[in-house]
TrEMBL record:
GO terms for cellular component: plasma membrane. This is Uncharacterized protein. SUPFAM superfamilies: SNF-like. It is a multi-pass membrane protein. Residues 1-30 are annotated as: Disordered. Its main location: membrane. One of its GO terms (biological process) is amino acid import across plasma membrane. The chain crosses the membrane at residues 40-62, 68-87, 99-121, 225-245, 251-269. InterPro entries: Na/ntran_symport, SNS_sf. One of its GO terms (molecular function) is metal ion binding. Coiled coil: none annotated. The lineage of its organism: Eukaryota, Metazoa, Ecdysozoa, Nematoda, Chromadorea. It is found in: Membrane.
Length: 274
């Protein structure tokens, strides 16, 4: 019996070695697919509960299509809504604020409310910035109803790169007036310079403070549309906060419908943005 055990161990090790696929085989690609699917599922859970892993949403929509919509809906129903009602139930049962609930559950969890408060402040600031950027871009895009939008072409700046003129103006003559801006941008900038599309370049001028200005940084005034959008965002947030938890509870049912419509729009238009 003692002599047979090495042969068994050898056979087991040989079977294990034979079971391991090579690096370039289809089994290794399946493992990579499982890892990517796990990342997409984590992105769906984080996107349903909060604002984490948002950068994986366009990639997951571009690769998986409407599959991400199904994952998001399931995670929202099974995770986001129960967590919300569990938090409300704990507050109603104990008749205490979040600062006292976790201390009642366990003294070691007394620091959780401070972390939650910091996370809420951080998320509120980030969401306010996102809403402000969306409202600003939406208001500026309305000018396309009566004239050509300002972000349709490269109006100024050598860093702007209009890909629609690239094919027609790449080998154009220097006297071609329609390609003057494209040719000057190619001549004045280096080959490895990072160039942006007209849309990105136009909105970067609105949201970003210029590095070189004649005025001191203290006297810099942002775009008026950004200021109006920011004030509107904080007014809506203040109105929602004063209404109370009843409005927020009803809003939880409406968020899933808005999220589904948003995911459908991203799945249709997401590939054009990537």
């Amino acid at each position: 019996m003692v002599k047979k055990t090495p042969s068994k161990t050898k056979s087991k090790s040989a079977s294990k070695d034979s079971a391991t696929p090579p690096i370039g085989s289809s089994e290794s690609s399946r493992v990579e697919d499982k890892i990517s699917r796990t990342e997409f599922l984590c992105a769906a859970v984080a996107f349903a509960i909060g604002s984490g892993n948002l950068w994986l949403v366009p990639a997951s929509i571009a690769q998986s299509g409407l599959t991400f919509l199904i994952q998001f809906t399931v995670c929202y129903v099974l995770a986001a809504i129960p967590l919300y009602y569990m938090e409300v139930a704990l507050g109603q049962y104990t008749s205490a604020s979040p600062w006292c609930i976790y201390q009642m559950l366990a003294p070691a969890m007394s620091g959780v409310p401070a972390a939650m408060a910091f996370n809420i402040v951080l998320r509120s600031t980030v969401l306010s910035v996102w809403v402000t950027e969306f409202l600003t871009m939406f208001a500026i895009s309305l000018e396309g109803a009566w004239r050509e939008p300002s972000y349709a072409r490269c109006s100024h700046g050598d860093v702007c790169y209009d890909h629609r003129l690239a094919r027609r103006c790449m080998f154009a003559s220097p006297n071609d007036t329609s390609c003057a801006q494209f040719i000057s941008a190619m001549v004045n900038t280096r080959v490895d310079a990072i160039k942006a599309t007209p849309l990105i370049h136009s909105f970067a001028r609105i949201f970003e403070e210029p590095e070189i200005t004649l005025k001191p940084p203290e006297s810099y005034v942002p775009n008026s549309m950004v200021i109006v959008a920011l004030m509107l965002t904080w007014i809506c947030a203040g109105c929602a906060a004063t209404v109370g938890a009843r409005f927020i509870g009803r809003l939880a049912y409406a968020v899933i419908a808005i999220a589904i419509l948003t995911c459908i729009m991203l799945s249709i238009l997401g590939k054009s943005f990537l």
